[in-house]
Amino acid sequence: MSKQHLQKNLKPRDKAALCLLDNDIDTAEEWLEKALEEDENDHAALGMLADVCMLRKEFQEALGLLVLAIAQKPDEKAYLLAFSLCADKLSFSFTQFNAGMAKAVEACLALPELSTDNLCPLWHALLLSHPEVSVIVSPGMLYDSKEKAALTANSLFLSGLKRLIVPNWGFEKALTTLRASLLKDLSSGSHLWERENFLRTAAALSRYCFYTEYIFDTSSEEETLIAAMRQSLSENPAGARAEEIAIFACYESLGRIPAASALAVVCDAETALIPVADLQIREVARLLEIKKDIPCITPIEDSVSGKVREQYEAFPYPRWHHVPHNAVLGEAERSVPQNGSILNAGCGTGYEAALVGTVFPDAEILAVDLSKSSLSYASARAQDLGLSHVKFAQADILQLEGRAERYDYILSSGVLHHMADPFAGWKVLRGLLKPGGLMRIGLYSEIGRSSVVAARKIIQDKGFAATRAGMNEFRQRADKLLPREALEKLRESGDFYQMSTFCDLLFHVQEHRFDLVQIAEILDKLGLDFVGFNLPPRIFKVFEDMHGPAANLADLDQWHALEKVHTEVFSGMYQFWCRAAG
Length: 582
Fold this sequence. Notes:
- The protein is an alpha/beta fold.
- It folds into 5 domains: 3-121, Serine Threonine Protein Phosphatase 5, Tetratricopeptide repeat; 145-288, no CATH class; 303-443, 3-Layer(aba) Sandwich (Rossmann fold); 450-506, no CATH class; 516-580, no CATH class.
- The protein has a 7-stranded mixed β-sheet, sandwiched between helices.
- It has 27 helices and 7 strands.
- Helix 7 packs parallel to helix 10 and helix 25 (516-526) runs antiparallel to helix 27 (556-565).
- The mean pLDDT is 93.
- The chain has helices spanning 3-8, 12-21, 25-38, 43-55, 59-72, 77-87, 99-109, 120-129, 145-153, 155-161, 169-188, 195-211, 220-235, 242-248, 260-268, 274-292, 303-314, 351-359, 372-384, 422-431, 450-462, 468-481, 484-491, 499-506, 516-526, 537-547, 556-565, and strands spanning 341-345, 364-369, 390-394, 407-413, 433-443, 528-533, 574-580.
C-alpha cells in the first residue's frame, strides 16, 4: 500500500506529524490549521503548532498556542516543558492581566520536576499587572487584613513564592514588609483573617526566605520578637504553636533549633507546614548526615584555600534543584568519549557536576571542592537526580599534582580566580589532562566586572565585614554609597538576592580578574589551544558584525577588541573551552 494511500485515511493532525518527521514544516502547519478548523480545542494540534512556531523562532506565537493547549490539558508535561523553554526566550510587560497565561504558569510551578527559574520574569510581570495583587507587591506597602487576605487567595502569588526567587529590589522590599506584618499579627494576637490562610501564606514566604538565606532587612523590633520566639521554641519545641513555627521559619531556619525534630511533629499536623519541616528540618538533618561521609582525598594546607573553604562552609554556593531539561552537549564536548573520565575541579554545590553528569551518563565523574557543606548539598542533589556515576570528594586543586589519574575532560568554572595563584592551579589541572583532552574554564573579566570592582573598593574602604551583619548593612546602605549606574547593575544581578551568592559577588576573600590578552598568554604557556566561548548565539552575531563574516572565532585578540566596545559581553565570566595537544 502506497504512502499516499495511507496518508489519505489519516486525520489532519496525524498528517502534520508525518510532515514534521520529513521536516516539511510548511505543509505541517497547513494540516494543523485544518485540524484546528475542525476542533479549535484540539490540544495536541495546538501543541504541535506551537512546536512549528518554535522551530521558526516565533516564540511569542508559540507561547500563546501553548497557553491554549495547557488550558485544555494542564497536566501534559510536554506542553509545560515547552512553555517553560519558550518563556525563557522572551521578555514580559503586561498592560492588562492575562488570566490564561497565569494559569499556564501555575501549572508549570505545580510540576515538581520542572526547572522553573526561567519563569520568574513572566511570573513577576503577571503579578504587577494583577488587579488585586499589583499594589500589594509594590515596595513600601502597608498590609491590612483585607490585602493580606487577597494575597492568600491568590494561588499564583503563593505558588511562585514556593518555587522562584525574583531578582528585583522593589519586590524584595514588598516581601520584607509582608513578613514584618505577619510577625506583628502574631505577636499582637490580631487574627483578623483565617488561621489556615495565615499558615499557608507564612509557609510559602518561609520557603522564599529560606532560599534567599534570610537576606531580608530586619528591624530591631523584629529581632527582639524573634529572639523571644527562638528561646520559646528551644525550651518547649513540642508545645510550640503552628503559627509561631511558620513565622519563625521566615526569619531563621528551623533546623537551627535544638530538638528540631519535635517541631517537625507539630508541623506534620498541619498540611501547610509539612513542606516547611521537609525543607528546614529533615533536609538539613539529611545534609549533615551526608557531610559525615564525604571523603577527603587531599590535605588543605594553603592559607588562601583555607579561607575560601571557611567562606563556603558558612555560605555554600549556590542552592539549586534542577538541571535544564534541554541540556545537551556543547559542540566542543562532542569530542569527549561518552564513557570517558571527567574531573569537575571546584564543583561547589554541584550544579555543573550534575549538568555534565546528565549529558555524560556513562562517564566516570569525580567532583571535588574545598567545602564539605557544599559537597553535601551537591551529593544530595545528585542522589535526587539519580546521578550515581558522579562521585564527590573534598580536595584542594593545588594538592592534586602528582596523582596518577588523567582525564578526558576537566571543568573548573569560577574557581581558579579565587586561588592565591590562579596560574599554579591551572598548571596542576593541565597536568591531569590527557593528550588531546578538553578543558572548560571560567574566569572573571576585568572589563566586565567593573561595577563589582567599584563596589568591592567601597566595601574595603568603609570596612564592611564579610559577615552576615556586615553584608546586610552594605546592602541597605548601597544606594547612598555606590554610583547609580553601578548600583543598578548590581541589583539587576540575581546574585544580589541570596546571601551566599551576594557574598560570592562582593565579599569573596580572594578574587583575581583577567583580560583576554592575559588568558591568551596563559594558554600558550600551558600548551593549550583555545577552542571557543560558551556564549548565546546573539553574541557571535555581534562578533561577526564587528569583524566580518570571515572573522576567526578562535582569535582572542579580536574578542578582546569586541569586549572593549561591548563591555557587558563577559559581565558574568569568560566561559571557554581549550584543548591539550594530541
